[in-house]
Amino acid sequence: MRRRWSSVPDAAAPSIWTLFLILLLGQISVVNPQFGANQQNPNINVQPQGQLNQNIQNPQAGSLFTGTGNNPYYGVNLVPFGPEAGDFEVNPGMLTAGQTIDLHMYFPFYGGLYNYTTLSVNGYMGFATVLDQGPTINVGPEMTDWPRHEDPAMIAPYLCKQQIPQTISPGMRSGVFYRLMMRQSMFGRGSNSNMNLGGTYQSSFFGQSASQACPGTADSYVRCDANADYFLDTMMNWLQEGVAGAQAFRADAAVVVTWYNTASAISGRSDIDAGQLATYQAIWLSDQTARLSYVIFNYDRLGFDAADFRANSRSGRCQAIFNGGNHTGVVPVDPTQMYKNTPKVLAQRSGVPHMVRGRYMFRVDDVVRPGGCSNKTGGTYPMLIYPNIVNMLGEMTVDVNAICLDRAQTYILMIEQRQTATCTILTPAIARCHLPKIYDWGTKTVYFQPQSGGANDEKAFVGYIYFVPPTLDPMRLDIGNVYDWFKNPMPSQVMPISWYPRNFTNPDIETHLDQFRIMDDSIYAVQLGLYVVAYREYKDDNIKKFRPEHRVIARLTSYSNRNTYDYRFKPQEEAININQVEQWYMNDWERTHELYMYRFGYLKLAPIRAQQDQFQAPQLLSGLVSAPISLHWLWTTNNPRYQTTTYNANDQESRAEYVKKKATEMCHDWYDEDGAQWNFIRDVETNSSCPCVEAQAIADLGRFMPHPRCSQAFRDITCQVSIGARNCYMSSQNILSSYAGDGRGFASENTARFPTHYGQVCCYDDHGFLMQTSYQPVIKVTPEVPYNPGFPSRAYEFGTAPYMGQYEIPGLSAFHNDYMPYFLCCKFADFRCQMFYWRRPSSGCQEYMPPAYGEVMGAGSFNTIDNDKFIFNEPGVYNFLYIPKTQTTPEVRIQVRMERYPNRRIDFSLLGRYMSQQDLVQPTNATVITGIVLEATGTDRVHVLARKDTRRFRYRTSIVVGNIIRYFDTMRIQRFRGILIYVNNVERGQADIYVVLEEAQIGVRVRESYNIDIDRLTEYQESMGMLNIDLSVPPQYGVRPDGDKAREMEYRQRYNLPRVAGVMRPFPDQTSGSFMQTMTLNDVNSETYRQQIINNYRVQGTGEPGSEMGLGSANTMGLPTENMFTTSRDEDKQFEVFPEATMKSGPIYKAAPKYETGMYRFFPVTGQMLNQRLMTCRDLQTQNIINLQPLQSQITEQYGATQCPDNPGAIIQDCGDSIPCQYDYTLTNAKVLGMNAKNEWNIFTTERQDATRFCKNDLFPTE
């Protein structure tokens, strides 16, 4: 009989005598040497193990299953499994349908949180019922008819119909095995503290004892001992070797599932004997907080690629995929042509070829992203880049997962519209790229290819890096309280500094050598230097222009990077003595004269080069950069000029006096310098005058935004220049000016505006009034009085394209030209603050005109930008706002998607007993907004979407820009092409989003479920899944905020204004008097306007079947007919293969076809129907008649169950005369939604009145 040996690389097949000895002497307590758990503790009393299976013909099960020792059946790419490793076996009676196991904690996967999983012989870990009818198991948007049929979320290493062979040779074993490994620290125990008698690794063949059980886990397949800790550490090391950014992941739990010797669904004995079997593993890891999650697939052998007989056809083709479930998208393990031809190739190839064959790694906590490397050549493949948020000052390194690397090749990272980065190979799966300075702010697309790209086909690897200014960098160097660096004298002579040691590697280590390992602690042993980098914008005589300069002027001190294991997740904390300089890179003359030309700088922690000139400023290596700080403390540190004065070098007061004297001189120099430049105040005040009251600044979403450092909206604590203000706002884009050529005269309305490099900052006191610089000398009688108004800036805070020259560098130019002069004149010098305010007077709000401001909330309650008020419900995609392009304004397109809100009273536990899959989502007659998409001329397309049910745990919304999902966890403000997006993260879940179209100056605020704190509502597992949208339109479009349209047509013709129309301005050509009234029951789904809105603004093909009608006459005015949710811009179509395309295009409350026709079709509830229903239901609730006639009792009960809310009496009492509250409370049957609708409507009405109270009488001049 032929014996089939498994393929073990570099191992010869053992002889029959070797096998005889192994079977005779095998011990259950042996541990796989690759885990090193066989180290014995001399103080441990190991319990004696009984002799099992003495018969030589029946080998011991532990050795056979786990492959310990020299077992030839065990593949080297598998982790130990089977009873000896503590595994349980899936019950044979549950193999096909799957056995559900408890995970005892939450594991994140594809946006959902799961504390259970279902294990099936068909090669998947599922999270819902799987429809396995027919030869193929269909999952995903393209293959399932969800919600009529199931589309379950699943992790499927090899999905197809399989079986556990029933008739196999006596020496073969088969089954599906699983265990759960949890770290001891999760239960408050250290290593070995919960072990019985201190045993490190004992036989688990008969299950673990009660003393070894994890607290609170009754299942014996759960492990939380020293072996579990070591296993998790090993998995972390594996991930480090294969996945970029995995160094930041700490695994606290792992689910290990092994499919051992499975056969195709209808294989016979001959197929099994021929070796057509499959053995593979899935290892799912997560941290305790359920924020990060990774999956490792190990394929030992794949003997079939389809579920049919002898794999002779494509019927039942096996596939390796991650399915998000409910049509959220599918991610294949290997999207290559070879995998498509035969999935068996997965066992031959690898995503980490330097480790072992058949291994693949993925990050799966949200949309699944592949780790490791890929051999895909054509199409588009997402790169995994860490970190993908990079300081624009560059000189940093990023790790990249892309193509499988060849050390003989040279690889380049190409940065869109900028430069290239040279990359070195760490492992065949990870490249480390050294970025240069990239003077830019925003997302840049990057491409990864070998240098010989013209001769190869590797064109698929595309990613993005977000470049940020140092003022906003979330990964900047921590140097303590930033306030202290701007004080004179410094409050302490020793300042703290901290960093994570694993951010630095020794630059002298040869990474191209095969023995290089990322997990090796020795590569992090490096000497670090703390350098002072000074910044200025000076005149370059060579180019005859001013340009930025970064100069290394000193090294303060040196540190040894701690590379022990304890500092893998622990920061290194050191101290900075500001009175000592280890090495100056300025000579005595430069320190006496040129040092004061640098008003500020920053600190950089970088490795020290082995051989460098002691007195020449080095070219710094990649490192960490601090926030901008003042350099006044260096003026008295080993400074020759300070030594020649009469001041005492050791006297703190004398140091402060010297700084005060020099600051006064520098303030005067700046005053003269700034006065010789263009008077930019004229442009700023004319084009961006501050709102007079804070309510106007809140409403003006398109022109002003909360200051990133000086506002309560962001709750940031690094504000340095506006202490005393309650809130500050800044212009959300560069100030647009038209003072050029004809723009100065009467033809200005025909002249397009252009962006300047100026910015505006407006601060408000505790009463909401604008703070004025002219009040400052009256109010600020002592330096301690907190009164610091906002002031305009010559250099805009966020920079100016192309972000390279004078006044253009984000953050740094503002500090050099505006913020540091403030400190020199107002903080360091005496009696010079008015000199600063003469050059930077605050706005007087004389030229300010408020925007048109509207909101839609809850179940379709509209308060439009021209002050119409109504409730409109009808499913479909609508043109929310459309503005055609003119000579002075861009084209603006905004669409929203309205869906029928589901009935939340449906009991999901009835699934499979009294209810089918298609009945889980039963829509109501209330429609809510679930998505919005925006774009303007020359901008990216932005989608803001509510996430689907059971996926609103970590993120309640998805922000998709250019068909790629964007995350705002650490970077709250992100800039894209022509668009600014910022997120208020006060409430968890990314539920408050602001989007600004910069050139159009139109702003949108999107809140999911009123941005309520859902964690405090214990009766709700997740948020409600609806969007509230605020819209702000500036006055240049001719929309009056009070809604008066008496002279609309005249103004439009006279001033060449665009026609602003959409659901938020449904009647642009009609004069309406609703702006003088409140909402009444007659404004609820009234037919006087319903059909007009549907015909004019709904995109064809997006309504329910049977509701489509011909286009109205208003659509001949040029309103878009394209559905922006399902289409893409030409430059974004390459990313349609990513799962984000599915997330944005499909509805989140998709219902089965039967609920869109017949008796279930949408029916609008009018105000009269709403009032009548409430009265009837209240009467049914309060009546005391019990013995009704049988038919009458049945009808009454049925009406109450299908038409009435749970507590109609409370609705009438709680809502009062609030129509939005009555409508939302009744139709959604949720008190929290009704009360929030009432409060939000009242708040918005008040804020709108305050925001328009101080506007001018007319937006346009009269005759």
From TrEMBL:
Look up keyword Transmembrane and say if it applies: yes
Q: Which residues form the signal peptide?
A: 1-33
Keywords of this entry: Membrane, Signal, Transmembrane, Transmembrane helix
InterPro entries in alphabetical order? AMOP_dom (IPR005533), DUF7658 (IPR056075), Epithelial_Barrier/Signaling (IPR051495), F54D1_6-like_Ig-like (IPR057018), F54D1_6-like_Ig-like_2 (IPR057019), NIDO_dom (IPR003886)
One GO CC annotation: membrane
What name goes with this protein?
Answer: AMOP domain-containing protein
Q: Where is the AMOP domain?
A: 659-840
Give the taxonomic lineage as stored in the record: Eukaryota, Metazoa, Ecdysozoa, Nematoda, Chromadorea
